[in-house]
């Protein structure tokens, strides 16, 4: 089947009110010319402001994390999916490598957060990927198979049907070093085959994004891969012009 391309931005811990407003104005102007699905995932405090700025467009606002707790309660500092949805978020990044590495998020926590996102009506962008050490040890496929296996065993079918996957080679995040188009396509094909071993129909429809130093000058070549359905963009999403140029690279 033909999967619609999807470009998602991840601002990480960056941004300001002025930056959100300027970005929103630029996207309102550019959105009519962009023929793909789009989302921008910003820090919690800016989600509602960005959602309002983009409400006249097809560009969605999103968050970068959520609590695995669905119901309100005594979880100081946590934010659940219902709160994000109420602020206008439609997407949420789950299991980013920085959350896994810096904050100890396990595969089981990633599954719980994906389920919590779906319960709140959000689409989880679930991240998977290997470190440089794992790649050099020829462990890429084993790592990805483990991460995908946790999802297919732990998630409800409705979650797997609704989620977006993002393959992010950790060695390419924020380093300026990107997987080659051939490497990206090869890994994406493997990821899709792993899902197909569980359910071929879901595998065929599942969007799989590439995330790892995506820029306007390499986006088109990356998107040419048959199993590369778009990108999870980090640094290049902080400026509207580079984010828009990546979206325009969709073919």
Walk me through the structure.
Helix content is 45%, strand content 15%. With 251 residues, the protein is of the alpha/beta class. It has a single domain (6-248), classed as Aldolase class I (TIM Barrel), CATH 3.20.20.70. The protein has an eight-stranded parallel sheet with strand order 7-6-5-4-3-2-1-8. Helix 2 (47-53) links the parallel strand 2 (37-41) and strand 3 (59-63). The longest helix has 18 residues, at 181-198. The chain starts with 5 loop residues before the first strand and ends with a helix. The relative contact order is 0.15. The model has no long low-confidence stretch (mean pLDDT 96). Keywords: Cytoplasm, Gluconeogenesis, Glycolysis, Isomerase. It is found in: Cytoplasm. Involved in the gluconeogenesis. Catalyzes stereospecifically the conversion of dihydroxyacetone phosphate (DHAP) to D-glyceraldehyde-3-phosphate (G3P).
């Amino acid at each position: 089947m033909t999967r619609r391309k999807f470009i998602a931005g991840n601002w990480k811990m960056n941004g300001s009110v002025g930056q959100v407003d300027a970005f929103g104005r630029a996207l309102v102007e550019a959105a009519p010319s962009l023929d793909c699905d789009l989302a921008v995932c910003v820090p919690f405090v800016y989600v509602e402001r960005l959602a309002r700025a983009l409400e006249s467009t097809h560009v969605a606002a999103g968050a970068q994390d959520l609590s695995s707790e669905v119901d309100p309660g005594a979880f100081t500092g946590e934010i659940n999916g219902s709160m994000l949805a109420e602020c206008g978020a439609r997407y949420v990044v789950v299991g980013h490598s920085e959350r896994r590495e810096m904050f100890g998020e396990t595969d089981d926590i990633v599954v719980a957060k994906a389920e919590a996102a779906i319960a709140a009506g959000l689409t989880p962008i679930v991240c998977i990927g290997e470190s440089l050490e794992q790649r050099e040890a020829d462990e890429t496929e084993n790592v990805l198979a483990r991460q995908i296996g946790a999802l297919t065993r732990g998630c409800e079918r409705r979650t797997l049907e609704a989620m977006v996957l993002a393959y992010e080679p950790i060695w390419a995040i924020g380093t300026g070093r990107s997987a080659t188009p051939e490497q990206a396509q090869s890994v994406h094909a493997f990821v899709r085959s792993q899902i197909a071993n569980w359910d071929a129909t879901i595998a065929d429809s599942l969007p799989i994004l590439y995330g790892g130093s995506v820029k306007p000058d390499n986006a088109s070549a990356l998107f040419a891969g048959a199993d590369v359905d778009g990108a999870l963009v980090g640094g290049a999403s902080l400026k509207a012009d580079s984010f828009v140029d990546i979206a325009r690279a969709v073919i």
